[in-house]
Amino acid sequence: MKVNQLSVFVENQPGRLAGVARALGDNNINIMAMTIAETKEFGVLRMIVADYEKGMKFLKEAGYTVVTTEILAIEVHDTPGALADVLDAFTKKDLNVEYMYAFVARRGDAAILVFRFDDPDRAVEALKDTDVRVLSNEEVVSLEK
Questions:
Q1: What is the dihedral of CA 110, 111, 117, 120, to 10 degrees?
Q2: How far does Cα 27 stand from its chain's mean position?
Q3: Domains of the chain
Q4: Which pLDDT tens digits describe the chain residue by residue (145 residues)?
Q5: The whole model's pTM is what?
Q6: Residue 113 and residue 72: Cα distance in Å, rounded?
Q7: How far is residue 60's CA from residue 97's CA, in Å, rounded to a whole number?
Q8: 3-state secondary structure of 90
């Protein structure tokens, strides 16, 4: 139960980020969540899109370097301390969070968080004894509806 994320390498220049958005928008690919890490010369735009295979195809056709990464999207209670509880579950299994970001949508009273691990299967296992639900790729992309 992992989600496919696109990582797009973008030069840190005016218009390059807009070009990514245009390549997806012109092809009716909805961006569900995204974050960008940047340096002076380039950025890495990480995104969950409604159809990652088509998104990757259109971005490559537009000249971008794109890779896919398996990540976890989890549903947690949107209450104080809920994130700490999730992170404690990972710490107990000696898992290091490589990065995370919050999702732009909600499911009822739950928030959705996205995590990257070097071993996502171990991360799923770490959550088995918690009340945290790991979402499938299908569940995540269906949030746009």
A1: 30
A2: 20
A3: 3-69 (3.30.2130.10), 72-144 (3.30.70.260)
A4: 689 999 999 998 888 888 999 999 999 998 888 898 878 888 899 999 999 999 999 999 999 999 999 999 888 888 899 999 999 999 999 999 999 987 756 667 676 778 777 888 988 898 888 888 898 888 877 765 5
A5: 0.76
A6: 8
A7: 28
A8: helix
